Predict the 3D structure of the following.
Amino acid sequence: MPDVMSSSRLVGVGVGPGDPELVTVKGVNALRAADVVVVPVMDTGERGRAEATVLHYVPQEKVLRVVFALNERSDHSRREAAWDAAGERVAELLRVHGSVAFATIGDPNVYSTFTYLAHTIGELVPDVVVETVPGITAMQDLAARSGAVLTEGTEPLTLVPVTAGAAVLKDALAGPGTVVAYKFGRQAAEVAEALRETGRIEDAVWGSALGMDGESIRPAAELDGAPLPYLSTLIAPARRDGSRGGKL
């Protein structure tokens, strides 16, 4: 049993948006070096995107599922209880193992469950070393697959989770630069309306299940307002005049 006070390490590893080839070398090494790799699952128990990616690099017997209320947004107490239980489970692992990796889709510092876990572990195991390994984000993958340019010159880049409300997205679209929207599948109609109202729909692109079976990448103008997968990504590029280096 390791000395938790001096040696236990919790590493949040970003494993990208779903394509196993988009896990970094450092990420693969961190997964393989850990004694246990924790993957988040919903309380319904099905294999998540992070687990499916991890299994390309580590054996099943090294992977442990921990339940998070990943789809719980209305019942705050139930969500908090799930986070607390997950934190307790990982704290138990840290008392037995020297190194625990937590695999998260995308990047562990961008809208990741790892943030909540690290906060809880910091209270339960104050002297544990917490580290993160960055991962490829969905907006980077969608930009690469669709040909959308995220930024040029002095353009800003705004990332909006539409779970914050369509009004937040509309405000961002009314401003300068490129706007990226995450988590908007259930509000697809509101997103399409915001794009049209701000004159940003023609160049915008939408994608889901990037790098996996069922991948879909389409111009946003083709969206009919029907609900989309929850983990949908939208890129609305900045307004550009077509000149080279025009924003320098």
User: Anything to note?
Assistant: The chain has a mean pLDDT of 89.
